Amino acid sequence: MKEFIIEKGIVIDDIYSVIDGIRELSGQTLTDAETIRKFITKEKSTKFYIDKKGTGKMQPDRDTVYLWLDSGFVDGYGNPIMISLLSDNYGGYSGHYFGTMDILARGIKSYFPKNAKDISRNLNNLKNKYQSKVAERDHRHIDNEQEYLVMICNGEAGSSDFERLINGLGVQFEDPVDETADAVKETEAPKEDQKPAIDMSFREKEITIGLLLDTIDDMQDYINELLAELKKSNEDKAKLRELEQKNKDLEQALVDIRHFNAEHNTETEAPKEIKDGHDLLGRRGKILVLGATALDVKTMNGIAKLYGFRKDDFEYEVDYEKIVSFAGRSSKLEKFSALILGACPHKVQNLGDWSSLVEKCKNTEGMPIAIDARSRSGELKVTKESFREALLQISNELSQNKRN
Fold this sequence. Notes:
Number of helices: 14
Mean pLDDT: 76
Structural class: alpha/beta
Radius of gyration: 24 Å
Number of strands: 11
Shape: globular
């Protein structure tokens, strides 16, 4: 056993067992405890204070029993690996327990069995809060220890956001050639069996194109807001009609881009472990996309194909007004294998004691797997990236359920 101080009052009392456990859960070769300390102290929202009912807070209070530290690493299913420390009732925390949020929540239930229902409900709330908070980080997780350390070192040296993005993608650039020293040579044509110097991976293409489309989405939302304001102020109607037509042309161009991207991506090699989506679906055999989305159905079907799902594996209920009546009837939802939740109305029929549709879907017994698709800012929004992440999470959970 060896104590390892994260910062004043926060101590891991057996760092060796924690490192060994993170290695086993993540499959990564974590070499230095200092990496964990750097992540916890340099990234945003890495400390979550937990009470005996499983309520997670960003600041401690008199009810705090545990402190969960985000180690920066994730397990094979993409779940964050947390380190749980126990309060000493004097403002300090120490311990060495670790695991995913689900594992640690089960530990709390064993100590406070009367609170089991509250703990389950609050755990889902904490997961949602976590996804919202980590979107603000410079680095959500540590995908590779050495690359992460290089990136934060570059950040400390004052590198720009663009440089960090390039470093994160792992793109290598050759040193510039001194043209004055060498004679100009005729460029040789690349051989057919040679690959380009920069060959972006499937994941890198997903991220880069996703960032571009999300940025266009934000610009489009802003344009729509401006047009709405202009209408209110009774500006020149002819000019407004002209702007509205241009806006429609832009919207159509965006749809065309998404269609092209979906068709293109279906030809891109996806990671082997996520090609069997259709085969994972059980007897219910369908996924319902419920809530307003930023994508059209054709684009979502194109993305789903990358993960081994078929067009007829999905049903879509994306009309905001129809959701009010449709989503309140649990019998209609229980026939699906999984739900992907986008932006839903606050007032939904037959919610009972539940405060929201998301809460009901994620906590009602007998309901299918329910994943709320959230953008990088944490809002409920089906974007290309959040839809991809929802499909990946559904695939992982269905695969895990099948093994169990």
